[in-house]
Design goal:
With 410 residues, the protein is mainly alpha-helical. It is built from 17 helices and no strands. The protein is globular and about 60 Å long.
């Protein structure tokens, strides 16, 4: 892809902050939705099992339509594609609350997930391009802004739920507000466009082999993240007999650890490189998993979950960055990695529950520990040369000599 003629370093830096705002808006939609799931369940009258089925449809919708995001960006340009897809995502927030039954809820959540996935791939592809032009790591910080947005959205949703607000009104107001904010943020991102000679990507394509290998690293990280996020409170309550308040605090602490680690992660990646960073993170996550498995007190387990969060926080951003540099079609490779990570997030909670039913929650987190150690072994696949982009000034010159974000010493 090419883009506007003026890709000065100052302009690219401004584009980075605009893209950070986009990530924050995207995360705020997720946080807003998650807090009102109990209201939606009560309004539709579905059982816990039916709700579990419905909540699988966002990942299904995302996996089905993420591969077409590259074709959309090629046709309309990255900025216009992101503007439209992000608006589709923010407006989709309002749909599930209006669903009257299980069938319509599944349909609404499938559309909601498809919009989420397509906008996710587009903004991550733009993040990789912006990172390349800056010549230093920014992907971890962008994902940190997503986590911050999710926390903001969940805080607003918690307040609305505490006040007894109707989720339909809450989500309509949130959708309208976030659509306006997202549209404004998109104005500042890089306007990348395909050249006349560049062949359009296929409307639907299987992910390249490079994305499958990189996606396996993301799979391990997202599995550990999803298991810890969804099951940490249950683990403390059922295995260590803690109070509901302490158990809930474990989930909050895990989320905060993830957000802080991602926001601070770019400096670590620039200093040590992606491979060393992920290997060190894998060691921390493995130690955290062992601490959870062997914990005899709730605070030891909480410390273990915090270490898992710290260890896996930057892996997915780095996997997206590596995918975007792994071949001639960044969007297709990123879509492939995103599909694998979404799948991991989908199966992790149910897999943990299934293993727990067969053995125990301790047995489930033995698997999490093994997958965390997999990050130590597989981190080397994230080593890839940055793609140097012509016309980017000093940043491009620096990229040719040094690759702090991905090809750091192992």
């Amino acid at each position: 892809m090419t883009g506007e003629t003026d890709f000065s370093l100052r302009r690219v830096k401004r584009a980075r902050y605009a893209l950070a705002a986009v990530f924050c808006v995207h995360g705020a939609v997720t946080g807003s939705f998650a807090t009102r799931v109990p209201w939606i369940q009560e309004h539709t009258g579905v059982s816990a099992g039916q709700l579990g089925l419905a909540l699988a449809f966002p990942a299904i919708g995302a996996s089905l339509l993420m591969p077409v995001s590259g074709a959309i960006a090629h046709r309309f340009g990255a900025r216009n594609a992101l503007r439209g897809l992000l608006a589709l995502w923010t407006l989709a927030l309002a749909l599930p609350a209006f669903a009257p039954n299980l069938l319509t809820l599944c349909a609404a959540l499938c559309f909601y997930g498809a919009a989420a996935g397509m906008s996710d791939v587009t903004m991550n592809a733009l993040g990789v391009e912006t990172e390349n032009r800056l010549g230093r790591s920014i992907m971890s910080g962008l994902h940190g802004m997503w986590s911050a947005g999710a926390l903001i959205g969940s805080a607003a949703g918690t307040l609305a739920a505490h006040l007894g607000g109707d989720a339909r009104l809450h989500h309509c107001i949130a959708a309208a507000s976030l659509t306006v904010l997202g549209f404004a943020a998109c104005q500042g991102v890089l306007d990348l466009r395909s050249t006349a000679e560049e062949a359009p990507p296929p409307r639907f394509a299987l992910p390249p082999k490079s994305a499958l290998v990189i996606g396996a690293v993301g799979f391990c990280a997202v599995f550990a993240e999803g298991a810890s996020l969804d099951w940490s409170a249950v683990f403390l309550r059922d295995t260590l007999d803690t109070s509901a308040g302490v158990a809930a605090g474990s989930t909050t602490a895990f989320s905060l650890t993830m957000a802080v680690a991602r926001i601070a992660g770019d400096r670590v990646v620039d200093r040590f490189g992606a491979v060393r960073t992920v290997r060190a993170g894998g060691v921390l996550a493995t130690l955290g998993g062992l601490l959870v498995v062997l914990a005899s007190s709730p605070y030891a387990a909480m410390g273990g979950f915090a270490l898992i969060g710290l260890g896996v926080a930057v892996v997915v951003p780095l996997a997206f960055a590596a995918a975007g540099r792994s071949g001639p079609n960044p969007s297709q490779a990123i879509a492939g990695v995103a599909t694998i990570t979404y799948t991991s997030g989908l199966i992790a909670p149910s897999a943990i529950g299934g293993i727990a039913n067969a053995t125990s929650l301790v047995g489930s987190f033995i698997l999490v520990t093994v997958l965390a150690f997999g990050l130590v072994l597989a981190a080397g696949v994230l080593r890839s040369a940055r793609r140097v982009v012509a016309g980017t000034g000093a940043a491009a010159a620096e990229q040719g000599a040094r690759d702090p974000g991905a090809a750091g010493p192992a």
